[in-house]
C-alpha cells in the first residue's frame, strides 16, 4: 500500500505560481520515488479556486484552510517541504505538526523538480 504524503508549499504572496509549483512537487515525487507515495496537496485537497486564492489571506479563510491542511498532515504518513517553506508561517506550522506526530519529513530543494 502506498504511503500518503502531504505537499507543503508556500501559498501566501506566491499565488501567481502556486499551481505550477504544486505540479512541480508532484513531478518531483513521481520522478524521485516512482509510485511509493500517493500525494495530498493543499491545492487539490481544499479545491481552492481563483477567487479563494486571491482572498485567502483574510483571517477567516486562513484559519479555515490551515485547519484543513493540518488535518491532512495528521492523516498522512509523510510531508514534503517545498522550496520556500522556511519563510512561510503555514508551512512551518505544517512541518511542526508533522514532526510532533512522528511523520517522515522530506525536503525538496530549489531546482529538484
Q: How would you sum up this structure, described in words?
A:
The protein is of the alpha/beta class. 50% of the residues lie in helices and 16% in strands. The chain has 5 helices and 4 strands. A 4-stranded parallel sheet has the order 2-1-3-4, with helices on both faces. Strand 1, helix 1 and strand 2 form a beta-alpha-beta unit. Helix 4 runs parallel beside helix 5 (89-100). The longest helix has 17 residues, at 59-75. The chain starts with a strand and ends in a 6-residue tail after the last strand.
First and last CA, distance: 25 Å
Q: What's the count of strands?
A: 4
From the spread of the alpha carbons, the general shape counts as globular
Radius of gyration: 13 Å
Question: What is the fold's blueprint, element by element?
Answer:
Blueprint: E1 3-8, H1 18-33, E2 37-40, H2 42-46, H3 50-55, H4 59-75, E3 78-81, H5 89-100, E4 104-107
Parallel strand pairs: 1-2, 1-3, 3-4
Helix pairs in contact: 4-5
What is the structure about, briefly put?
The chain has helices at residues 18-33, 42-46, 50-55, 59-75, 89-100; strands at residues 3-8, 37-40, 78-81, 104-107.
Structure keywords:
113 residues, alpha/beta, four-stranded parallel sheet, 5 helices, globular
